[in-house]
Amino acid sequence: MEPQCPRDALSAIEDQQRKVADGVFPGPMPVFATWGSVYLVGFGSIWLSWGHGGTFSAWGAAALLGALGAVATAVSVVRLTRFGKGVDGPSRRTATTFAWCWPAAMAGVLAFDLGLQRHGMATGTLALLWPASFLLVAAVLFLASGALWADKGQLALGIWSLAVAAASTFAGSPANFAVLAFAGGGGLLTTALVAWLARARS
């Protein structure tokens, strides 16, 4: 068996390191793709059900959004449990701690919105508040993630999501659901595609 040249040996080592890194710290691409689909299909169906010829019933659209959200949450949890599996050290602890900031932050937003609803906030305002507040907090976490790991894609997604969340409130109901579906979902799906292409080229 002929010995490998140094270049081939280095390439083999880099490929192995990349496979290990992918297994230990899985990228966010599946999560972005799943949630992008939730926004596009779920909020898009709500927009279509709100005064657009009854293409979907309001309850059916809400049920669809809830079902898709449950699937996306399951995907996210599976990815969270894989973070840093089998290794230890500061990087693993940082990544794991930050990953679990997501459910904590979302639980906080849920409680915040429920509190406002309990105190009699108008239904029309709630339709703007609920989806925009979750996206706003997600945008801040995208920015933090991009800064933590020097990820330009997540930084760009964070800035875009901030703009989408704000724009959705200015659009009013039901146009806010279209903004969330096409701009919010489109941003997540585009980021997932860019991440997949980058990984495919590496």
Please provide a brief summary of the model.
With 202 residues, this protein is mainly alpha-helical. The protein contains seven helices and no strands.
> Total helix count?
7
What percent strand? under 5%
What structural category characterises the helix and strand content? mainly alpha
Number of strands: 0
Quaternary organization? single chain
What is the helical fraction, as a range of percent? over 70%
Q: What Rg, in angstroms, do the CA atoms define? A: 20 Å
- The 3D shape can be described as globular
- Mean pLDDT comes to 84
Largest sheet: none
Low-confidence stretches: 17-25
Give helix and strand order, one letter per element, not per position.
Answer: HHHHHHH
What does this structure look like?
The protein is mainly alpha-helical. It has helices spanning 6-24, 29-49, 58-82, 90-118, 123-148, 152-171, 175-201. Helix 2 (29-49) packs antiparallel against helix 3 (58-82), helix 4 runs antiparallel to helix 5 (123-148) and helix 6 runs antiparallel to helix 7. The chain is globular. The chain starts with 5 loop residues before the first helix and ends with a helix.
